[in-house]
Amino acid sequence: MSEELTKQTEDLSLDSKTVFDSKEEFTAKHPLNNRWTLWYTKPQVHKSENWHDLLKPVITFSSVEEFWGIYNSIPVANQLPLKSDYHLFKEGIRPEWEDEKNSQGGKWQYSFNNKRDISGVINDLWLRGLLAVIGETIEDDENEVNGIVLNIRKQAFRVGVWTKDCEDSKLTTIGERLKKILQLKDEQKVEFMSHDASNKKGSEPQIVL
Amino acid sequence: MVKYTEEQLLEVKEEAYVPQPQILEAFNKTIDEVKEHAAAEAEKHKAIKWNNGDTYIDEKGHERPYHSFNRRRASKSGTAKPNLRKKSVDVVQVDEDGWATLSTKSNKKSFGAEDGNDERSKFRESVRESAQNVKVRPNNKNLGSSKPADPREVTDKHSNTFNAFEALGDEDDDEDDDDEEEDDE
User: Fold this and answer.
1) N or C, fewer C-beta in 10 Å, chain B?
2) Does any CB of chain B come closer than 8 Å to the CB of residue A36?
3) Among A56, A166, A64, residue whose Cα is nearest residue A105
4) Rounded to 5 degrees, what angle do the CA atoms B161, B138, B176 make?
5) pLDDT tens-place string over residues B4-41
6) What b/e sequence results for A1-35 when a residue is b if at least 16 CB atoms lie within 10 Å of its CB, and e otherwise?
7) Could you tell me the CA-to-CA distances from B75 to A174, B72, B81 in Å, in that order?
8) SS3 at position A109
């Protein structure tokens, strides 16, 4: 990550103007239920760069208008360099399993391995995922979803929805909705795995839908 | 809890507002740098793969890699390979009655085929002469029988008795020897 961007994100004021902040200067007519932070994982350019150097918050927003302003100004999914990740998480939650709000949870995930075929539609699918998360229609009132992740890899595009718990009863709805959002067929299975299990070799998914 | 459906969110798309454009510019710049680095790495990898750095200057002054000399000759499948052997020559012989006979004279000769012809003739003559005087008795093991040889027969005993069958067999063997030599020709 360039030093310029790092400095700017450090100095970033997370306050954006909404109708609730300032009735005179509001630019956001459609406030979101939560504030969301976009993170980016930069591919390693120098061997000296570690995970913390590569994973950086980009910007935080709290309205639909801001979301569109940001979305229109950044590269779409299929324009990102290999080994990049986009993460959109609720403000205050780092997109790492070590974060206390993630540590007891896991992720629903689907990997599009047919990268050539999916390259034309991955932008739309990722956008649908973002909209479902910020609009909070990916779940009912469970308040389970912490964020959504896109991994750009050589062989695949991977989309994951991170949850704060691993209780089956709370997770099934989210998995089913993710499958609809990604327009998957019945035989294309989404899998849920806890972060604990993901760190152990040979672990089987907790739920498969 | 405020929720927005996908359709509701898409309706607001035209009202997009960029909260902090300088941050997004810096972000885009970072991604461009990453892409440039990736492209440079790919070029470097390509160069390493196809060029070992050892080059020469051709007649036009261009630097060229030596690896082009190490390429295998291109396949010429589909075209006939040239026949480098000498072709046989057709010879027409006309006899006394005026009949013409077409014969093919082969140029194919073994290497050194005509060498030592005289020595070979002399050798054959000497063998024929001696064959009339010397009787050779073959050993059983040379006859190709899988049965073990009888040691009484193998033992080369001098016998003064005359055996007509043995004498006949010896003559046959002599003839065989001659035949074998002729086959060698």
Assistant:
1) C
2) no
3) A166
4) 105
5) 999 999 999 999 999 889 999 999 999 999 999 888 88
6) bbeebeebbeebeeebbbeeeeeeebbbebbbebb
7) 60, 8, 11
8) strand
pTM more than 0.80: no
Q: Which residues are B63's β-sheet partners?
A: B57
Task: Determine the residue among A4, A26, A29, A141 to mutate to test chain B binding: the one whose Cβ has the most chain B Cβ atoms within 10 Å.
Answer: A4
pLDDT digits (tens, 9 = 90+) for A24-47: 455 568 999 999 999 999 998 888
If you search the block for the tokens 């190490």, which residue do you land on?
Answer: B70
Question: B184: Cβ–Cβ under 8 A, 6 or more apart, which residues?
Answer: none
Instruction: Assess contact for A149 and A133: CB atoms under 8 A.
Output: no
8 Å CB contact of B19 and A59: yes
- SS3 for A125-191 is HHHHHHHHHHCCCCCCCCCCEEEEEEEECCCCEEEEEEECCCCHHHHHHHHHHHHHHCCCCCCCCCE
Q: Which of A172, A162, A159 is nearest to A98 (CA)?
A: A162
B10 min Cα distance to partner chain A (Å) = 9
Nearest to A74 among B28, B35, B37 (CB): B28
Residues A184, A191 contacting (CB under 8 angstroms): no
Q: What are the C-alpha distances in Å from B32 to residues A155, B1, B43, B61, B118? A: 22, 39, 16, 37, 91
